[in-house]
Amino acid sequence: MKSTFLLLVLSLLATACGLQSIPTANNAVEASWAEVQNQYKRRADLIPNLVETVKGYASHEKETLEGVVSARAKATSINVDAKDLNPESIKKFQQAQGELSQALGRLMVVSERYPDLKANSNFQSLQAQLEGTENRITIARRRYIETVQEFNNLVTVFPTSLTNSIVHHFEKKPQFTATEAEQQTPQVKF
Q1: pLDDT tier at 13 (50, 70, 90 boundaries)?
Q2: Does residue 112 fall inside a structural domain?
Q3: Closest to 107 (Cα-Cα) out of 23, 47, 37, 33
Q4: Model-level pTM?
Q5: Strand, helix or coil at 181?
Q6: pLDDT computed for residue 156 by the predictor
Q7: Cα-Cα-Cα-Cα dihedral of 151, 182, 76, 68, to 10°?
Q8: What's phi and psi for 115, nearest 5 deg?
Q9: Closest CA to 109 of 169, 156, 61, 155
Q10: Phi, psi for residue 8 in degrees, rounded to 5
């Protein structure tokens, strides 16, 4: 009877002190990071279709279109492994994605200049897809921020921080932060 009770008490202590919760939270951070990358990939996959649609209507806006293609190439070339999350890699990833967002914004301004393009159903569909994707990216980033906060609390707040320092040795995970360019109000000119 005493050994069963002791086993029960030890298992409760083990679960309460972070032996399971810290690795579980780490897995949640990795999964939420994968979803962030998944949504950015979705956006990158949509861009060639959007660019091709716009090309047909605005062939003389070559510089804008080339900027989008270049920014997409740069954004898709930067991969951050969930197991190697650090502030520098997150910053580099965010910067490339921010440049792509800016290029897409310029592309949307081009669409305003061409009423025929704006009325084209293919363009409208792609624009709606892109808008939906941007919303999904925002949600995925918010979920990542929440899971990182939960994880960071486990590795830094007593009593689980004690277990982490003895058993797991996890470091805090970096959060998303808005880049300097993302903090600026976009300028839309017609």
Answers
A1: low
A2: yes
A3: 47
A4: 0.68
A5: helix
A6: 94
A7: 160
A8: -55, -35
A9: 61
A10: -65, -45
Q: Examine residue 18 and state whether it is found in any structural domain, yes or no.
A: no
Q: Quick one: tokens of 48?
A: 């060639």
CATH number at residue 130: 1.20.120
Task: Record the tokens describing residue 108, joined without a space.
Answer: 């949307």
Question: For the segment 149-159, what is each residue's pLDDT rounded down to a tens digit?
Answer: 999 999 999 98
Residue 104 lies in a domain: yes
Q: Take residue 145 and report the two structure tokens written for it.
A: 């921020």
Non-local (6+) Cβ contacts of 178 within 8 A are: none
Q: 52 and 76 in contact (C-beta within 8 Å)?
A: no
139 and 32 Cβ atoms separated by less than 8 Å: no
Question: Residue 164: what are its φ and ψ, rounded to 5°?
Answer: -60, -45
Of 6-20, 66-80, 95-109, least confident by mean pLDDT is 6-20
Distance between start and end Cα atoms, the chain: 80
